[in-house]
Amino acid sequence: MTDTVDKAQAASVPPEQIKAIPVRHYGRWVAGAVVVALVALIGVAFSNAKINYSIIPDYVFDSGIVNGAWTTLYISVLAMVLGVVLGIVLAVMRLSSNPVTSTVSWFYIWFFRGTPVLVQLLLWYNISLVFPILNLGFYKNEMTQVMTPVLTALLGLGLNEAAYMSEIVRAGIQSVDEGQTEASHALGMTQGQTLRRVILPQAMRVIVPPTGNEFINMLKTSSLAYAVQLPELIKKATDISSTSLAVVEMYFVACIWYLLLTTVFSIVQYYVERRYARGTTRNLPATPLQKIRTNLTKMNMLSLSSWRR
């Protein structure tokens, strides 16, 4: 009888509360301290370096630098458009059952992805040494007059970009279920109509993110056009540094403009990706603008309710 009472009393006593002790991550503290120390050392080194930081703001909006930035943006957009259009054609050729078109597309991708962009630019720039005269039958002119720095940069950057875009587009097309193609053909659509109206719109959610990354990379890769005398940002900064003797300072100015351009287009890429992700993700996180709009609405509601009281 006594054992039964003791067991009942023991069962009625609540168990002792477990105290959770967080795990100490000493490695994080050590890594953080090392990173802070390295950043501090770099900051001290640059603060004591022979760099005239005061003249950098004077050249950020210099007319030559602004024109160079505009040329960088201009040639990047044109080269990207050429790369996207030609990349779609190459991707369709690569996926074709025709062995000739498939082989030609594979060889193009193999060549342009396997050789440096700078070499391709220099080849186009010096093509007049091989073909002095351009004769198309309906048009004839000296190659030196035809192959301007703008056209050289456009061909060198755009044709190279097409090789990478073709692989991106091919991956996007292959991500669409084959049943979509079969259903389109059953409705009487041609191969071209199926590609334009069914396949590509669905493949955009796979194509858009890497395409945005490629364009941001194109903004920086366009600096190689300096080697073919294109008056882009690096060329303008170098020309100014040769007269002002502020070499490093001009490169800092160029870095500011590259960071500005890439930041702006990264924001654009973010919103474009959200648009094409609406059909695949139910609860998208709020954008910064949506958060600001929501906070302003809450503040207005609170002020209105306090005013009524």
Structure overview:
This protein has 309 residues and is mainly alpha-helical. The chain has a single domain, classed as MetI-like fold (Orthogonal Bundle). The protein is 74% helix and 2% strand. It contains 13 helices and two strands. It has a two-stranded antiparallel ribbon. Strand 1 and strand 2 form a beta hairpin. Helix 5 crosses helix 8, helix 6 crosses helix 8 and helix 9 packs across helix 10. The longest helix is centred in the N-terminal third of the chain and has 33 residues. The protein starts with a helix and ends with a helix. The model has no long low-confidence stretch (mean pLDDT 83).
Number of helices: 13
Order of helices and strands: HHHHHHEEHHHHHHH
CATH architecture: Orthogonal Bundle
User: Separation of termini?
Assistant: 68 Å
Q: What structural class should be given to the helix and strand makeup? A: mainly alpha
What's the mean pLDDT score?
Answer: 83
> Helix coverage percent of residues?
over 70%
- Percent range for β-strand residues: under 5%
The CATH superfamily is identified as: MetI-like
Q: Identify low-pLDDT runs.
A: none
Largest beta sheet, briefly?
2 strands, antiparallel
Number of strands: 2
What would you call the shape?
A: extended
Q: What is the count of distinct domains?
A: 1
Widest sheet: strand ordering: 1-2
> Could you say what the CATH topology is called?
MetI-like fold
Whole-number radius of gyration?
Answer: 30 Å
